[in-house]
Amino acid sequence: MADLRARFAGIELRNPFLLASGIWGESGESLKGAYEAGAGGVVTKSIGSAPRPGYPNPTIETYERFGFLNAMGLPNPGIEEYPREIAVARAAGVPVIGSVFGADADEFAKLAERMVPTGICAVELNLSCPHAEGFGSEIGQDPAEVEAVTKAVVRAVRIPVIAKLTPNTADIVELARAAERGGAAAVSAINTVRALAIDVRLRRPTLSHGLGGLSGSAIKPIGLACVWQISESVKIPVIGVGGIQTAEDALEYLMAGASAVEIGTAVAFEGIGVFGRLVADLSRLLDELGIPAAADAVGAAHHVAARSG
Amino acid sequence: MRSVCRVVERVQETPSTVTLRFEYPSVARPGQFVMLWIPGDDELPMSLSYVGPRKGVTIKVMGDTSRRIQKIPAGAEVGIRGPYGNAFDTDLDRVLVVAGGSGAAVLAPAAAAARERGAEVRVALGATTALELLFDRRFQEMGATVQRATDDGTIGEKGFVTGVAGRLLAEEPFDAVWTCGPEVMMQKVIRAAAPVGVPVFCSVERHMKCALGLCDACALGPLHVCVDGPVFPATALSPIPEFGAFKREPSGRRVPA
Fold this sequence. Notes:
Chain A is an alpha/beta fold. Chain A contains twelve helices and 16 strands. In chain A, helix 6 crosses helix 7.
C-alpha cells in the first residue's frame, strides 16, 4: 500500500486530495461530508467582509463531460456568519483551509485574522476569481498587488498563507514569484480560465454576468503547464488545481511539481464519492508503478526531463 | 447544455398560479425539476407539473421573480436545462397525496403515473381559499378521490389539510404518503403518518444555482436538494435540524424557513 500522505507548508494531510474552493463549501455539514467521503482536507468557499448573494442565475453553463463555465460572483454569507460553518467541520476534525477575498491588502489581512480563531490550518487568498469586479484576478493579475496582499496577510496571521493564482495573465510565474516574495508558504494554481458562451438563438451570453471561468478536464493541460513552470521557478510548494478527474490526472499534477491537488468540477460528474475513488485509485496506481509514496512523485517528471535534456 | 423552448400555452390555474407549457422532449419522471431561464432575467428550479413531451411548470406568485415569470406570454422563448433530481416511486397500490397550495404542482404528475399503473390515489388538497385549490379537477379526472381543506372554509373542511390527511391515515391503509407544501405542513404530515407506520416522501424546495451538486446553495444538512432530492423520505429529513427551521439565502446566510 502506497503512502498517500501529503506534507507541504507545515501542513500534513492523510492524502493529497483537497476539496477546491467554491465547491460544496457553503455549509459546514458539506465540508464535513467531503472529508468523510475521503478528501484529505477542504478549502472553504471564498469569504468576504459582508454577505454577498453573487450574480443572478444563470451562473453556470455545462459542457457535457469536459467542464463548466461559471460566474457565481463570489456568493458568501460574510465573515460574521461563516465561522459557525467552519466550526461544524472542525468539530469533526476536518483539516480546513480558509479561503478569503478582499478588495485590497488591508481587507484580506482583516478577513484572514478573523478566520484564524476558527482553527483553520492555512489561509488561501483568492487572487484569481476571473469574474468579480474589484476582486480576485483584477488584483491578482498584478504581481505588485499579489506581493502586497500576501505580505499583509503573512504579517497578520501565524498560519501558512497560500496564494491562489490566476492563469488569465501573460506570465503566471511572475505572480508565483511575487507571492513567494510576499512570504507565501505555498501557491495554488490554477483558478478557472476566463471564457464565454453565447446562445445563438437568443443572441446573448448564457451567463447573467456574460464572462465566466472555465473549469474541468478542458483546462487540465493548462493547469499542468502552470504548475510545471511555477515549480521550476519558486522554492515554495505548489497545490495543483484544474480538471482532475482520475488518479492519473492527479499523478500528472504531482509529477509536474504539485505537493497536493484540489478537486472541484469532478464532484458534479461523480458526486462526492469521487474522493474515495481517487484515493483508492491513486494508491493502486502508485503500487502499480512501484512508487512507494505519493510524496516521492512530487516533481518526478522534472528530473526525467532534466536527464533526457 | 440548455435548450431554448417556446412557451406554447399559458394557463391561469388559480388567481395566484400559472402554468407554462413548452415542448421539451427529454424523458422526465414525476418529482424531477428543470432549471427555467427567462432570458434577461433569472433562472429558477421548477418542479415539472407535466412530464410528457409537452412539459409544464406551475408557478405561484411568491416574489418579484415569480411575478415576472407568470407574465411570460405564449410564444415567448425560455431556456430549459434538466430534468434534474430524483423522482417519486410510483410503483405502489395505495397512495395518499397531501398537497398544500402550489405543492400540488409536483404531486399531480406523480398521482397520474400511479393511477396509470392502477393504484388507488387519495388526495388531501389544501389551499387558503376555494379559488386557490390547485389541480382539483385534474386530480378528479385522473380518477383520484379528492378531499379538501381551506383556511377560510370556502370549500371542504375549514382548517389545515394535515387534519384531513391525519383522518385518512387513521381510516385507511396506504403504501406511502407523498407530500409537498410548506415545511411545517410536511413535518405535521410526517408526524401524522408515524403512528401507522406509513412511509412519507416529501418534495423539498431550496434556492438553487448550479443544480448539479457543486455550489452548495441548496445544502440541507448533509444533503443537496438538487442531486439527492428533491424527493426525500421522511427518515432522511427528520434527523436534520434545519428542515422546517431555516433555509439559505443566495449568499448562503441562514434565514428562518
